[in-house]
Amino acid sequence: MNCYLLLRFMLGIPLLWPCLGATENSQTKKVKQPVRFHLRVKRGWVWNQFFVPEEMNTTSHHIGRLRSDLDNGNNSFQYKLLGAGAGSTFIIDERTGDIYAIQKLDREERSLYILRAQVIDITTGRAVEPESEFVIKVSDINDNEPKFLDEPYEAIVPEMSPEGTLVIQVTASDADDPSSGNNARLLYSLLQGQPYFSVEPTTGVIRISSKMDRELQDEYWVIIQAKDMIGQPGALSGTTSVLIKLSDVNDNKPIFKESLYRLTVSESAPTGTSIGTIMAYDNDIGENAEMDYSIEEDDSQTFDIITNHETQEGIVILKKKVDFEHQNHYGIRAKVKNPHVPEQLMKYHTEASTTFIKIQVEDVDEPPLFLLPYYVFEVFEETPQGSFVGVVSATDPDNRKSPIRYSITRSKVFNIDDNGTITTTNSLDREISAWYNLSITATEKYNIEQISSIPLYVQVLNINDHAPEFSQYYETYVCENAGSGQGLFF
């Protein structure tokens, strides 16, 4: 039967080389052949793996030894190495079969080499055995630090989020062999970011560990470290930075900057006039800082407040005209609130901020004011010059009460004095003019630009100042013998 010659390596790993040996008892059919080593049937070698550590600093690192049991040490055998890397990366001592690595190896670039071995009888030049493949595997050492994959990291999380809220997951990769001990087993830790953040050691998941207020600090830099060898001594590490920004929630109500505002309005201002602005501030941003202003208290119903949504100011406007002489000051109370408040945040907005507004009415020099919008007087015709017709009256509505001067326009038959008394300057004849349509003007003495005018109507009443007159001359005829009571002829 066949026997096997045992090749032994210095690494202690046996390789079986089939060969023809002496005959032994066997259940298989016996084939008798002369025992001669140079006459062999085709048979293959069975090779195990060689291992060589990566990153060896020596220029010639002994890996192992190939040696045939047929080699009797007389240097008649020559060992050859074939395949990719033979001669450049690996060499073999042709006499002894010792294999050496002559270059530094990097497992992350190439983890194994498949080579072929051949044994030649130098006396005959023939192969002692058919060439056979064997593997040199580069074993891993922990020479790669963890690297984070998706830098830079940035995350956004709402402020006031509860403890345990997921922020982001960071992931590192280690190029070392994950099957080689703990070289590629990573452990995450937090170098910067306490006490607000924590990281899960095995997953790299960052979570909130303490509530944060955006109005105090709106962003945080967190530094995460990843260590291989699960953090054991000699482990390599890599770090990454994570920028965590806090998004705003509506946890602040608007508050007035001032508790008292003083505004003025002219009594001549028309309704709808803007008389001033009030301003509240809100520490929130965006939609959460939008405001609505309104009147909380105004007994006179004279003013209103509208909101400028661009500037977030409250604009105080005049809803009804004011009169300095009637009321020269007002007091109103305004309030402000956010229009967009989620139900869960209403606890921050239970009581609206308010402010008091004092409004002073400014006096304006107004024209004289007549007691009536128009006057109607009556006077009999044929009254003598200087006869009394009637009295008009106008006053200065302002506090200084300027004296008033009166005048009549478009009239030569009436006169008015500074007391507003109207008299005739000529005799009136109803038959010439029964009505006079006039205009009375009142002018302030202190400011002649302040003028008011109203219409004046004077009716001339009739008196019996004319004897009847025939409309034409009549000529009459009568007969000479006419009797008593007989009519006349015209």
TrEMBL record:
Residues 1-21 form the signal peptide. Residues 68-148, 149-256, 257-370, 371-470 form the Cadherin domain. It is a single-pass type I membrane protein. PROSITE patterns: CADHERIN_1 (PS00232), CADHERIN_2 (PS50268). It is found in: Cell membrane. One of its GO terms (molecular function) is calcium ion binding. Pfam families: Cadherin. The keyword Zinc-finger does not apply. One of its GO terms (biological process) is homophilic cell adhesion via plasma membrane adhesion molecules. InterPro entries: Cadherin (IPR039808), Cadherin-like_dom (IPR002126), Cadherin-like_sf (IPR015919), Cadherin_CS (IPR020894). GO terms for cellular component: plasma membrane. Keywords: Calcium, Cell adhesion, Cell membrane, Glycoprotein, Membrane, Metal-binding, Repeat, Signal, Transmembrane, Transmembrane helix. PANTHER family: CADHERIN-19 (PTHR24027:SF323), CADHERIN-23 (PTHR24027). This is Cadherin 19. It comes from Gorilla gorilla gorilla (Western lowland gorilla). The gene is CDH19.
